[in-house]
Give the backbone structure.
Amino acid sequence: MTRRSFKLVRIARAGGHASILVFFITFLAFPFYWMLMTTFKTTIDLHDVSKNPFLFNEPPTLEHLVVLFQDTQYLQWLINTGVVGIAVVLITLVLAVPAGYALARMAGPWAQTLGIAIFLTYLVPPTILFIPFARIIATLGLQDSLWSLVLVYPSFTVPFCTWLLMGFFKAIPRDLEDAAMIDGLSRFGAFVKVVMPISLAGVLTAVIFAFTLVTQEFVYGVTFITSASSYTVSVGVPTFLVRGDVYFWGSMMGACLIASVPIAVIYDLFVDRFVAGFTVGAVK
Amino acid sequence: MTTATANAVTAKAGWRTRLADNERLLWPLMLAPAILYIVLLVGFPFLLSLFYSVSDVTVGSRSMNFVGLENFHRVVASNTFWIALKNTLIFTIVSQFFVLVFANILAMALSADFRGKWLVRLLILLPWVAPISLGAIGWLWIYDSIYSVINWTGQALRILGPNDWPIWLGQPNLAMASIIVVQIWRIVPLATVILLAGLTSIPQDIHDAAAVDGAGFWRRTLQITFPLLLPITLVAVLFGIVFTFTDMIVVFLLTRGGPYDQTQVLATWAFFTGIQGGDLAGGAAVSLFLFPVLVAVAIVFLLLARRSEVT
């Protein structure tokens, strides 16, 4: 091949690469771009089918965001999500950190099996468990209370975080603990004083994961909670703002965007670690 | 007296140290709380669900009687069940087929180095990392019967005639296609990052050696990359299947199973029967039809894990 045709092949390849990326970015990110446009367009502009919807035919407005924060309980939903998230994270850490460490250090083949068994319970979906839970929550008198979510959400955060932390603890060399124990620490003391401080990255990953899972959950929320003031964001926006025949698209899209983007950015920073958890031993 | 106290203190301290040093006691103690929680909040409700499915329990009633397989007979006799079962299978198989194709292409495109990769990755991951119930609401607006941006664009580009105005969520076949698109949209990012992890784990040496031996791009892709990626592809597909087969959020928010149950899936139907209809027994029976797929996926998953342990 001549030099020139090499160059052409390279340009064609780069063009192909770019068009693949453009196609997928358009498909995957478009709804979020559309939320952004809709949030700042006036209602008249949104409802004018004759004009190009990709342009601001009237000057951008903050009207929808004002409505969202003043006339709906959106702020309350954000607070509820934070409260439930923090409570669930705490419960998850208390249960999953010791369990993950024990699984990482236990001898014998059944430790691995037990770890996988715990992980598999993460795959049991809410759509199988929500019917018995509806009655359990009612019996406990927790219906319509945020505590129902605090109680139930660890049922999926604990299995995954235990698994995730097990992987982290396994990567920490045993020698460190042995040395600490020779220096007079107990087995448990070595875990608390030597292993924990160097595992903060792993613990932080578990925190982020548990928190984002809480913000994403919908099925239990819509099953247990019926009054608007106790919703979390992911349940409140779709159920309460959509009720009735009038759709406040501007406010709804703003609500979706404000809640999605921070969660997405934080999750994105840690996504490789979650993937490492998802892929078990299939990747080395 | 003082010696007795001192002895007691040392005995107590001794008991603590012994516990803190005894791995055979320590490990089970550290594991027990997590396992107990999982048993109480996953195992127990699951058994309860089995129990409900053979009873006549409803939301309001206090009594509960054993009715044998009556609920299952009732479910299987209903027309909606067969529609929901068929839709669940279509929803899962079609969406996961496209996810697999798209995720492979996208993962390969992302495995190359280029400027601004972090931004591209963030944009591409959005559908998976943002709460799906909010993403689905975004789609509800995109599919709107009056203001759909797809229709406007279609007409502007002359793909749609001036009088064509598809109602994406209102016509049975279109509605099914629309919810499948949203599910593809949601799962592609997850499958892509999983495959990407696999791609980066293949040592560059292998590709280099093959290139030296004269293998071109397609040959390397088909004969080296794909076989090496097989286990991790399987993992991506398994998660996709679990998250799609048992999902109710997309259908629930976009079509509520309509028009006329034409997009109903098992998970939404279980919700409408058991929670909104108050027929807990019927709902439990419906939702248990999701279980066989989970068992199958769990088995494949275990086999994979065992394989990776042996090698």
